[in-house]
Every structure is written in structure tokens, then in C-alpha cells.
Amino acid sequence: MKNNNVRLGKTQYDNFRKKCIEEVEKTAKARHKNVCLESEADYFAGAMTVMALVNEQFFGADEESKMNITAPMWFLGPMTGRSITKDWK
Prior knowledge:
mainly alpha, 4 helices
């Protein structure tokens, strides 16, 4: 994590990352259960985009590290053709 223009510290960063991952996955699970999660890849891409923007704007992440705030399986799963929701079962 780059430290120039950081508005929030490491503790806030860790708490934000943990809470975001929990909430994004909780919503994805509910949408999957209710059969309204049409595209896992699109859903997680949207979540990752917002989290990367927050990481850059509020935590000062640079271009190379702004995705380190997301859960790796959110992009590795779809890239390898694996279903994230099937991994939760």
C-alpha cells in the first residue's frame, strides 16, 4: 500500500477490506440462492471496480497495487472457468 495522500490508515484499510468481502459475498450468496445472480463474473467485476477505486482514492494505492484489496478468487475463478458459488457449497 502506497502512503501518499492516504486519508485512512492500515487498521481502517483492513477493516474495510474484510467488511467489503463479507458483504459482497453475502449478497452474491443471497442472489444465487434466489436465482437472480445472472453472471458471477459481472457481479464480482463490479464489486472489484468499486473496491479498487476506494483503495486508490481513500487508501492511496497506486495502479499496481489497487487490486490488492479484493479477494483473489473473485477474478481467478472466472478467469479459469470456475464458479465461485459452487466453491461455497
